Amino acid sequence: MTNAARTAWLTAVLCVLVLTGFSQKDDQGEVLLQTAIHKELVEGKLEDAVQIYKKILAGYASNRPVAAKALVQMGQCLEKLGDAQAREARKAYERVLREYGDQPEPTKVARQRLSALTAGAGGTTGRTEVATRRIWVAGKDFPVGISPDGRYVVFDAGGNGDLWL
Helix (H) and strand (E) counts for the chain? Predict the structure, then answer.
């Protein structure tokens, strides 16, 4: 075997080994993701699941589908842990949108969860109904000013120059 043939053969073997190693690493990320989902959904061990999701993000971030799914699942775990973790859940969903926008399903779920978190926090995102409120009934008294929060109205009652709140 000539040196050129030997070099080509060794290069091919190395490529196969390297690709197999990457494939196994991706598979390990998938297995770890399934382990975390099992901890979360079957065993109910949310804190343990969050730690596994963090491990996935640290070690398998190059596997974009697995990392995006791990972030979404982690956000959902954090939501289940209560209001104290809602901020961290929001950060996880925002990270999905910022870093993994090419992953359609995790992006869709992250948008939905962010919308729900915003609406639940008193925001208007996610609300589609029209809100109306009567602030004045037409009559002989005319408003002079309304407070910025809409709770108070200054008006001239009776037209004699007296201002009422």
Answer: 5, 3
